[in-house]
């Protein structure tokens, strides 16, 4: 097992009172940091090692460094922003430099505040990977609603509740997925590495096992870029990619191997606009695309960013939701 000094470093950043120290305590499972309700109470930098079950360990750092003064500085305008950056630099620069991943913590109940936007811009310039942690999402039912506006910051995002324990395993997995590989041994199934809960098979093991032969379906309007994405995954020009809508007529199964795992990628025919789904051939192609998603483990709904979200995309989202298809929108 590698020494703690060589473990990847994850740094928690965010304005006061978003729940950084609560999160820190939950993840390292101790009560070394003192949580408080009064914003702006500065704390020393805290460090601890997180050993998620089934994943590599990492060092977690809570800088606690962004103070109420810097928060006020942001509210004061451009001069304040410079003040804010100086404050951040002074208190968190060292942790930032050493970080392999920056976890920017925000308060899902407060929503997106100017401070968060300034911090996001600052972290973006650090060119370190950033994971946005939307905290105080105290249950799955509010997850989408409370996270929605934070997507605009453009970081990978996960919602959780440090205080109530919601999705903390998901957070650990997300963090590990964004960290560089280390020589840290991954505990075998059944071997205890101090997990949050102890319910047998770990998410990491489950996820790895599930990844064998996963069926991934690419769905979207014609010309959204499904075949190009499939080719990018495969690293070859296997499919005929054309700017002419509807070049790929039928669903095609493609085998893909990544890091020793096998996947089946299903490139569907594009789903056309409703007004055009009139003739029998087109209806067939629409139906077969939708049908492909029901057999898939995960469906990727591809959107054309240059055209934005169209009515047809919304209809597809609705359909996937109605059918409870596991899906990702990209
Ligand atoms: P920090 O300043 O970012 O380190 O924030 P703290 O961890 O000190 O938390 C600030 C306040 O938010 C405390 O009263 C916590 O109990 C509360 N808090 C932290 N996490 C959550 C959460 O997930 N849900 C709710 N409802 N409150 C939380």
User: What is the terminal-to-terminal distance?
Assistant: 37 Å
What is the averaged pLDDT score?
A: 72
Overall geometric form? globular
In the sheet with the most strands, the strands line up as: 2-3-1-4-5-6
Main sheet record: 6 strands, mixed
Radius of gyration: 23 Å
Secondary-structure element order, N to C:
EHEEHHEHEHEHHEHEEHEHE
Structural class: alpha/beta
Relative strand content: 15-25%
The number of E-state strands comes to 11
Bound molecules: guanosine-5'-diphosphate
Task: Set out the fold topology.
Layout: E1 9-13, H1 20-28, E2 46-50, E3 58-62, H2 68-75, H3 78-98, E4 101-107, H4 114-125, E5 130-135, H5 143-147, E6 157-159, H6 168-178, H7 203-210, E7 214-220, H8 226-234, E8 252-258, E9 261-267, H9 280-295, E10 298-302, H10 311-322, E11 327-329
Parallel strand pairs: 1-3, 1-4, 4-5, 5-6, 7-9, 7-10, 10-11
Antiparallel strand pairs: 2-3, 8-9
Bound molecules: guanosine-5'-diphosphate.
